[in-house]
Amino acid sequence: MGPQQTWLPGARCQERAPPKSDQDKEKRWAEMFELMDLNKDGHIDVLELRAGLAGRGLSRASVDRIVQAGDTNQDGVLDFEEFIQYLRNHEKQLKVMFRRLDRNNDGQIDASEIQDCLHSIGVNISLEEATRILLSMDKDGTMTIDWNEWRDHFLFNPLTNMEDVARHWKRSMMLDTGEQLTVPDEFTEEEKKSGFVWRQLMAGAMAGSVSRTGTAPLDRLKVFRQVHGSSDFRGNVLSGFKHMLREGGVRSLWRGNGVNVLKLGPETAIKFTAYEKVKSLIRGHDETRTLRVHERFVAGCMAGATAQTTIYPMEVLKTRLTLRKTGQYSGLADCATQILRREGVGAFYKGYIPNMLSIVPYAGIDLAVYETLKFAWLNRNRGVADPGVMVLVGCGAVSSTCGQLASYPLALIRTRMQAQASVKGAPRISMLSLLHNIITQEGIAGLYRGISPNLLKVVPAVSLSYVVYEYTRMMLGVDIEGRRSRKG
């Protein structure tokens, strides 16, 4: 082992229970079939399989793929023989993968072997990350995985090669809550060359567009409360909606949404490109080195700053269009023309400094909380399947909310600075002066004005984003684990 591998505890199991005989194993599989065959018709359909595997964190696409792989007579269901034959064939594939991972042929897999094997297929992870993977399968607490643990863990997960295993372990969600984009996902060289990345980004952009559109009324209410404070916009969420409906009708609830969706595509593309460039700079000559969490955070912040600087004029236009009164602007171009004529080019970067400052607490806390929650889940669920998609969705929602809470005062100041000219008689003041005025006139609570509709939109935003994300990836030929669909 190299020097960095001394972190791994050296405990190993000296004696393991001998594997069960083939007869006992297939008897256990027969019992599984009986349990899953809910209507006792001698067949298992997709719905019964989903119910039987509900606790394993598998996506619908994965369960569908099990039926497709085992259904030799193409009748859409698995009979007993097809079920047993699928498990036999899949076990053989798992055995090949296990032997490939077990580099020293001792019948056990440790974290360094996981790290080395994934490194060989272009997936660079740290030893600590490899240990987290190991913990998800280590049922007996020995810090190693034997064949029985490996087989039981992946028996009902339709993985066929080590690349699939790697994606299964690194799986993450690109969810959008309408706020700042989080630190981009990590992609392997094989994924970049195969076109997987653009399909992933396209699915994320589509999910974000639907999510933002679905929660646009809450977003507009948030902006109103941020800008007008307590003096002009009193009452609860319901009274806020009534005010907007009286002023402009139902369509007014979606004012500003068009540009909010329009900026998502370029922001995602710029952030991903910048993230890859910054990672290369941090790695230097050692292009295969795994980035540590704090390095990913730095790269994410710099990529976010680059993306925000590029698209920031659209942020200002979004705020002005969101706050506009009926008839004030005829559209996006008219809004931009009026701002340019009345206030000059500098108006398109109002609030830029607090916006840049808010990137650090948002990205840092979002990443830290997400990693902490995922690690905590693995520690509490040793020997259980890795975090399923809903666990990751939950982690993403909580981490995003924590990031928003930390960066919200800066976001509020940014929005007020962006909207200064749209508030009648409002003087142009600096960030520090605005901060002082808010605390003096409204107290500390004033820095969180409008946060209630912002928090209310987290759950629907994440839910919409996940559903659209999953189905868009399936339409593009990439399932939730990241593999190309095999059709025909």
Automatic annotation (TrEMBL):
How is this protein annotated for GO cellular component? mitochondrial inner membrane
Q: Which family does it belong to?
A: Belongs to the mitochondrial carrier (TC 2.A.29) family.
> Does the record bear Membrane in its keywords?
yes
Spell out the residue ranges that the record assigns to Solcar repeats.
195-281, 291-376, 387-475
Localization:
Mitochondrion inner membrane
Q: Which Pfam families match?
A: EF-hand_7, Mito_carr
Q: Which organism is it from?
A: Oryzias melastigma (Marine medaka)
Basic and acidic residues bias: where?
13-25
Predominant cellular place of this UniProt entry's protein: mitochondrion
Q: Which GO biological process categories is it annotated with?
A: transmembrane transport
Q: Does the keyword tRNA-binding apply?
A: no
The GO terms this record gives for MF are: calcium ion binding
**What is the protein's membrane topology class?**
Multi-pass membrane protein
Q: Where is the EF-hand domain?
A: 24-59, 89-124, 125-160
Protein name per UniProt? Calcium-binding mitochondrial carrier protein SCaMC-3-like
Q: Which domain of life is it from?
A: Eukaryota
